[in-house]
Request: fold
Amino acid sequence: MRRSKKRSRALVASAVVAVLLAGAGTLLYQHLYPDLDAEVARTLDILDGHGQVVGQYHVPSAEEIASLGNADAVMFGRRLLNETARLLPDNVGNDLNCNSCHMAEGKRPFGNHYFNTGGGSYPRYMPRPGREIGLAERINGCLQRSMNGKPLAKDAPEMRAMLEYMAWLSRPVPEGARVAAPSEGPIDSTLTPDPIRGQALYAAQCAACHGDNGEGQRDASGDIAFPPLWGERSFNIGAGMARLYKAAGFVKHNMPPAVTREPPLGQQVMPDQDAVDIASYFIHQPRPDFAGKAKDWPRDPKPKDARY
Amino acid sequence: MRTPLKLAIALAATLAAAYGIARSTPYWFAPRQQAEVDIHDPTLIEQGRYLSRAADCAACHTAPGGKPFAGGLGMQTPMGTLYSTNITPDPDTGIGAYDYADFERAVRRGIRHDGQPLYPAMPYASYVIASDAEIKALYAYFMGAVQPVRQDNADSTIPWPANMRWPLAWWQLLFARPRSFIPDPTLDAGQQRGAELVEGLAHCGACHTPRGLAFQEKAMADDGSRQFLSGSVLEGWYAKNLRNESTGLASWSEAEIVEFLRTGRTDRSAAFGGMADVVEHSTQYLSDADLLAMARYLKQLPAREGRSAQWTPGTDTTTAALRGGDYRVAGSLAYAEHCQACHRADGRGMPRIYPALAGNSIVFADDPSSLVQVTLIGGRTPHTPHDRMAFTMPGFEQLPNAQLADILTFIRNSWGNQASTVSELDVARMRRVVRDKPVHVVPQETAQ
Reply:
């Protein structure tokens, strides 16, 4: 009787010690090897034509390109869109890249993303040309207007590569559907611009990077870091960015970057009036003309901020 | 008597003696030093304002979003969170009831009004070398020019028995003994002035000198150990090595150090983390002569044994690879996607806007903590009148540990940089430091 009591006491004691040791060990292990990592990336809804959610869009990282069958073309397209002026000197006539306006490699909602370039959205009717155009033609529009340059042949390897990059980004979007993330953010287009106020705001919030004369800046290797906002090396009058509310919407939701801790660009959201004033100041500075402007809006009414 | 009883009595007697000695230190170890100070003398007040900036009182005693010098800034310690105190001249909640002797003893000796010792988070072990004239000017400024704020001090979250203050008197007996500044005769007058500031009021060592087991700085001045200002980690920020060594300040000129302290930036670097506050509250206001003195003093701190006084970059193969679309090196494609738009393919950033990574000594620092933390939570450069905009690095907490580790290892070893790798575990551990950051106590305005 006594012996078994002793034995059970010893047993209980060793059990307690074991539990304590295990607890301490677990705590120590958790301290040394914290189980902390990034939260699961948020996805965006994919909506069908009726606004029903038909899937989730996960914004892919450039590292996922390697596993694609057409990895080389997609990667080449990615580089062309990032560094258009350096890699396509015969087609770009100024100091802008595609991704000067298509922020974060074309993956930022409100930053002119490429998610909705697929899903059967091209070819489509657009009021400016007054006819149905394909995505290649849309890209050539950018080259001729925003980049004040020359179009690429539709079957040029460079054009195909850019299309392949956009196709990769839009692949999860089924026919007739869209990622529920506008590529352009909202802006109050009833506001009256004040370019004098805009000039002061430009000096305070834009000129540190884009220059007092809108001339932009290149980095130490000669690559474009901050695109010129006016002058001979900037976008021409035919570019979407030359239109007040397009420019203001872009400025409001994307500029200036690196002023908050918000990923991916440290951007803020600017008051609508500030953005409209800043845009009205810089878009009306001297910039190249667009030769084909007479052909724009041949049948539909011009938007109220059209420049010609 | 039985042995256990004897032992218990001996222990109680020792404790009682330890307690008694600790409580008696205000009478013999740090006696009051009374003096007359005219707190309305404008010249003295201005001197005091300058010295309060040199001493960076605001860095701790002004909480982000709080009123000047009203306290409430949380400081992380292994035991819990300490909150800085109200040092405005409010008689009830601040230091309004302090006479000069109380003030002097708090600043130089770490003993407050009621005779209790202050935590060494207050850098009295450095301030002790400040002269009587300096302390008088500081007193005139705080009493005569600082706006009184009625704001109660927040209690620390350190649990009993660790929150008992009397054992700190023993810490002070060991590590905060009275001393004065001893100029090194081998330095010129300018360097000696720099040493006096760096060791004393500017208390650079509080962050930049490694600490021992008892939390004491391993050196309070440049002694034979060469530990002074050799770099240390606090709240997950690595206050970098400031000695004239390869990974210290060897790659910095005196002019760059002055420019950095005055404006928070140079063409290739920018202050962030704790140093952004130091520039914003303190060094931007210091005279050119004092900044140059500090820079000249730092640049003569000899390298430690076995370390080079030069920094020699390796060959840059990174710029060509990134511009050519060669992403074979781990982390380089993620860098291109997430970092390159600002820090550029050549890693040289944009002068005074986006800091360089190539040749930036915080990037290839011995300890990558600051680099890991700034990448996770971002960082703000200080705002000074010198530049029209202050810039902020966004945080990248949303990227997985493995990708962040690859990116950080990549930038520490690219464009000629050479440094140790960063592991996924380093990133995971920094996430915990970030998660556990103290919250500051800033009372909201109440209706009067």
User: Anything to note?
Assistant: The longest strand of chain A covers residues 53-57.
